[in-house]
Amino acid sequence: MKTTFPFYLKLSCVLVSIVVLGFLAKLGERIIVPMILGLLFSILLTPACRFLETKIRLPRSFASIVVCILAMLAISGVVYVMALQIGKLSQDWPAFQKQIMDLFDQLQSWFYKTFGVKQSEQLTYINDTARKSISTGTAILEKIVSSVSYVLMISAFTFLFTLFFLIYRSRLVLFLVMSFSDDSHKNLVYEVVENIQFMVKKYLVGLFLQMLLVMILSFIAFTIIGIKYNVMLAVLTGVLNILPYIGIFTVLLIGVLITFATSGLSSVLFLVISIIIIHAIDANIIMPKVVGSKVKINSLVVIIGLVIGEMLWGISGMLLTIPILAIAKIVFDRIDHTKAWGYLMGEEEE
Fold first, then answer.
1. Are 186 and 174 contacting, i.e. CB atoms less than 8 angstroms apart?
2. pLDDT, tens digit, for every residue of 37-85?
């Protein structure tokens, strides 16, 4: 006899499960985030590891170490170039302060002419606000130090997880298959794992090519405009571009501040126009052709996922939102009881 439960009981179980999973995700952030990053990187690096194992006949452990070290060196090279640019940017800090002070004087004059507020009264209010901000300086410094240590810890654990996932990838797949006794379920597990590997690999490769093309277009545009830190801004534009809807506004804010500190208002205007044009080219040409529809997730679910990801894990959660949603949709589409959730997450069919 089949037992059916009332709707309110099912809804309560779903809500309680979501709350418990969210609490566990927040509690285990320092282990879950690098584990997911390691899983994605291991899937991306698996073809290179297989090449070393089959063509060059390297042992799996040694091949995994070589691939991980090469990937780490490539990422470190990009970080090193960014660090050099940031070091040069610090030299222009006095000029940045001067331009800010000039702009501040103009704003004070505008407030006095428009609202009749004297400059002495404006300075009193600003000084009171500054005292309150300075009182929190120690907390801000502690936050910065903890953020740097957090990034270093996440990077170390991500490297280790990537390495061990590559070494034990066959054993992990067999573990998932052996967890089900029914042969039909075993075939379903193989199918889901293959689809996840295919989707993640194609999506990450397409995302990398998209980032590279946006970086090249940004570098060309910023060089023509004559922006001083064109390499750093081009890299930031390519990296932050992978954040849907939010990345372009972040790039505009950072780009305007840096360009304003080192160039005139005309360069700021050309920078804004070039970023908008590059974003339009990416959204209408690069994204459909390079990334394609590897991840068929509708915009509503993406926005909700970005908000939840930022609440749970900050920037890391926003970067991991789309791959996690895509993997969840693949699993939901192949399980009878969760097909409705997979349909809800999909795009509108024409």
1. no
2. 898 888 888 888 989 988 888 899 999 999 999 999 988 887 787 777 7
> Model-level pTM?
0.71
Question: How far apart are the C-alpha atoms of 278 and 273, rounded to whole Å?
Answer: 9
Residue with tokens 């097909």: 339
CB 238 within 8 A of CB 211: yes
Distance CA 147, CA 134 (A): 20
Burial of 88 by CB count in 10 Å (0-12 exposed, 13-18 middle, 19+ buried)? middle
Both structure tokens of 102:
């000039």
d(CA 214, CA 285): 11
Question: Two tokens at 63?
Answer: 């091949």
Structure tokens at 126: 């600003």
Token output for 128:
């009171």
Residue 310 class from Cβ within 10 Å (0-12 exposed, 13-18 middle, 19+ buried)? middle
- Residues 251 and 237: beta-carbon distance below 8 Å: yes
Distance CA 53, CA 64 (A): 9
Separation CA 210–CA 226 (nearest Å): 24
Other CB atoms within 10 Å distance of the CB of residue 241? 26
